[in-house]
Amino acid sequence: MKLNTSSQAMLAFNLAALAALAWVALSPVAPHWLPPADVPRSADLAPSVALPEPPQAQLAKTWTQPLFSPDRQPDPQRPETHVPALSDLALTGVMMGNGVHFIYLREAGKPVSKLALGQPLDNGWTLTDLDPTSATFTRDGKAYTLNLPRLRLAPPSKPPVLTLPRTTTP
Q1: 10 within domain boundaries
Q2: How many Cα atoms sit within 13 Å of 86 on the Cβ side?
């Protein structure tokens, strides 16, 4: 019987695996475990000492002054800029038809989600109005409209896209 190269390699691998299994199974070596460590009992530990409670006025200073620097000042307050709650959403599609009114929204870093008319978002904004190119959300008497992006083609180039070389026929 003649074996090709791949069969010989497979046979050699199987024989090596069988020899390794036999060596592990027949070796008389028992495992050597470490002795158990002495764990101190709770009665052997020193009793805990109660720390004195600082007065409330001193605790209040920790919020306004740094703990490790006597001349530390509180962080300067930044003026709040009003960012709409829906600024991280993008309207990617509007579906309107026979009883079907829903939109597709894409939130930054998340997959596209589907939202039906009248359904609220997780942040409390409710989809209240749809038209073919926009969706209006309301919350607490405020309204915010998302519009579909209007994609435009690039302006046509001046030279023709494809120019053929001028050749004369023989």
Answers
A1: no
A2: 20
pLDDT at residue 128 greater than cutoff 90: yes
Q: Count up the domains in the chain and report the number.
A: 1
CATH number of the structural domain spanning residue 100:
2.30.30
Rounded Cα gap, residues 110 and 121, in angstroms: 14
Q: What dihedral do alpha carbons 142, 143, 144, 148 form, nearest 10°?
A: 170
130 secondary structure, DSSP code: E
Domain membership flag for residue 14: no
- Residue 16, both tokens: 């090596």
Is the residue at 130 inside a domain? yes
> In this predicted model, what pLDDT tens digit does every residue of 132-161 receive, in sequence order?
999 999 998 888 999 998 888 877 777 766
Rounded Cα distance, 31 and 43, in Å: 35
Dmax (CA) for the chain in angstroms is: 111
User: What tokens appear for 85 in the block?
Assistant: 């709650």
Under 8 Å CB-to-CB from 138, ≥6 apart: which residues? 125, 126, 128, 144
The answer to whether residues 103 and 91 touch, using CB atoms and an 8 Å cutoff, is yes
In a domain, 77, yes or no: no
